[in-house]
């Protein structure tokens, strides 16, 4: 028995050695032009006995060997789901990710199960034998993933499993990505090899809805609206509208409009694009900016009433056209003005909801303004700015949020006094927060609340003095108007009296002339 096993092992070893020798001779002496067809036919013969299929996912593909998004999605999926079973792992980074990614090491294999089907993933690395000289040299290492499964499961894998892999991978990428805050560059930097339409930094604003100083009911309403929007892709497709939504934030300075935008971005995990309209030359450049934005983003134009003269612009343009023919000297000054931004109201409207606004999805457009009454009605109508949110002065409910954030207080004996003062004064949340913030080591919650009370009482006095001044000025104005009106009446009466005297004198002179005649 032992002799038979020994002979068998010897025969297997001899067969393997023979195959290796034949393969070496094949590679060494067989012409290259015949190798391809022979390999092809060998694969066909082998596949007739081998019931498994393979799908390859290369790391790089396309122009300049750009990293494949499919490969990245597969890598992220395997990192989150299958690498728990791998014995050898490596640490990798994914572009714009805020965390390290654990992935399978080269030549490692793991098993996955989908709808009861067993699938095998393998990580491979092929080192190229040919070296090329190029302006954009390719890496000598060619990494790729191989998916192996039984051929009877072809339809399930190609129609459902691969789609599932992409969805899960992309969701994981979005969850772990480092979000960005973008601002638009001057158009001089848009061209050339290193063109950059947008510059960015990491978005690390800490604002959250939990810390926003506003009424709980309004906060809940905004949160529900954002959640509904983010989950309504199929609904927007059903009604035939681009998947976007417009928000108009308006209110006095210091009421938290910018903080609201940051909280929205953090809640939805969206990037933020801050558009500086004064740096945009014309409507065409504005459209290019829109094209370069990504999905899952908030496009912001702050203080839109100050960014460009968009208030009543259509009427102004009509008046200017009539004046150009009358006053050619003014045209010189207007030519200088045209060197600045030529973005028009029409261009901005098309930016919001024109045909180009549909290139992409899951976008929120936000306008902020301190003076909503100055904006053109066409700019803020429903359908463009779908939701109007007024951020007003600080009232007691908003104050309680600030007290909890800054002082860690849910209640205090001074709260009632503060509540009465907030009802009588118009104070922004920013001013209230400034008084609640610790300035020195010795200060405590009582000191901060007392400072706030003093500030509110001073604001109340100033508001009363301002109201008295306005009332006095109004009374003086009314008195002057009344006095002026009386003077006009007296003047008119005197003029009538003089006119009557003139007529009487003229009649008397006519009578005297008639007697003399």
Written account of the structure:
The protein is elongated and about 160 Å long. The protein is built from 17 helices and 15 strands. The strands form 4 sheets. Strands 10-9-12-13-14-11-15 form a 7-stranded mixed sheet. A 4-stranded antiparallel sheet has the order 1-8-7-6, covered by helices on one side. The longest helix has 72 residues, at 445-516. α8 (283-291) runs parallel beside α12. The protein is of the alpha/beta class and 517 residues long.
List keywords for this structure.
517 residues; alpha/beta; 4-stranded antiparallel beta sheet; 15 strands; 52% helix; elongated
Write the layout of secondary structure elements.
Elements lengths: L1 H28 L2 H18 L2 E7 L1 E2 L4 E2 L1 H13 L7 E4 L8 E4 L4 E6 L2 E11 L13 E10 L3 H23 L3 E5 L13 E5 L13 H15 L2 H7 L4 E7 L6 H12 L2 E4 L8 H9 L5 E5 L2 H4 L5 H14 L1 H10 L7 H9 L9 E7 L7 H4 L6 E4 L5 H12 L7 H10 L4 H8 L8 H72 L1
| Largest β sheet strand count, sense and barrel closure | 7 strands, mixed
Uncertain runs with pLDDT below 50, 5 residues or more?
312-318
- What proportion of the residues is helical, as a percent range? 40-55%
Query: Distance N terminus to C terminus?
Result: 175 Å
Number of strands: 15
Write down the overall geometry.
Answer: elongated
Tally of contiguous helical segments:
17
Mean pLDDT equals 80
Strand content: 15-25%
Rg on CA atoms, Å: 39 Å
Describe the strand arrangement of the main beta sheet, using strand numbers.
Answer: 10-9-12-13-14-11-15
| Helix-strand category | alpha/beta
